[in-house]
Amino acid sequence: MIINVGRQLGSGGRTIAARLAERFGCRFYDRELLNLAAKESGFCEEFFERNDESKNFFKSVFHLHVPHMSDGSFYNNGLSQESLFKFQSDAIRKAAETGACVFVGRCADYVLRDRDDMINIFITANEDDRIKRIRERSGCEEAEAHKRISKGDSERASYYNYYTGKKWGHSESYDLCVNSSILGIDATVDYIAGFIERAMPAGDNTERK
Amino acid sequence: MIINVGRQLGSGGRTIAARLAERFGCRFYDRELLNLAAKESGFCEEFFERNDESKNFFKSVFHLHVPHMSDGSFYNNGLSQESLFKFQSDAIRKAAETGACVFVGRCADYVLRDRDDMINIFITANEDDRIKRIRERSGCEEAEAHKRISKGDSERASYYNYYTGKKWGHSESYDLCVNSSILGIDATVDYIAGFIERAMPAGDNTERK
Fold this sequence. Notes:
Chain A is α/β, with parallel strands linked by helices. The first copy, chain A, has helices spanning 13-24, 31-40, 45-50, 54-63, 81-97, 108-111, 127-138, 142-164, 180-183, 185-199; strands at residues 2-7, 27-29, 101-104, 118-124, 176-179.
């Protein structure tokens, strides 16, 4: 079973995804863990060899959300962003082969689109809750939190739309979209778990769609 | 309690909305019933008096999904589309005042946006299920069903985006979006009912947002 969780910045989506992973005994992969997996799997050896500032650069690359990099040096190393997307996609596929996973973002729903044991979820939240969550996390001012929301959503949408050909955050790209402000984080986790249990009864790996 | 249900053409959203109304003892308003309510309430008397072909014209107007009418005669009667939107909005508000309601489409979520006892839901479905449903309903060919989906979604989006300033079908415009193909119509009704029950415990009319 694969659960993919897309989310608005500050929606609590990452927390919800982690709780779902715990609930269903799935491995949990967010951006950082996928980077590590990609690195450990050896997919990026070539990349690391070619790059003097590999560690920082690698880090910066996987924090990228937009199709075009501001760092010109990137293109001088003979690796396109498409290659990097491929590295990460390989890490996602490899992780998915090892068993049940929850992926947060990273277009995993697109990378694994041929699988029929997958649930795609998107988490939103009311703007005031998003602002509050971002401020608690980073200690920034309200105006700065608004800026981060606007920039974060825009970057996630660009990245997702570019690679998947689907629309980030649009209901038709997902099986279930929930505003976490309505029930709160705990009850939203329970509610989504109910969907997954109904959609994928234990041991049922027959085609759903 | 107010439940608003937006839906892709052929998603089963209207059926789901009707079942939710039955389940929660709400009055059910789709386009036809809202037209009737608008007419009966007397809001449109002026409109009917001004128009020779009032009945057919009235019908055509409320089937409109796009901001601009192809029927030029419309503008010659001294009533703008904004007035018509207002007639319909008044009917929605009046219906909502009488008690618990389920509204299908018609931007009711926007019209009633100041209420705090409202749940906004959007229903999608896999394309093959939508095609099948449209063909069963109208007996049309597959190519024609594809055309209707494309046209229907586009018109609904234009209408909704124009009047509400929100994005039709985008998760951030709703509290809950569900793909009815995953669980099927019956289980989707049950699942959505669970959300409504958790979000609005009986008798709880306190502010949610």
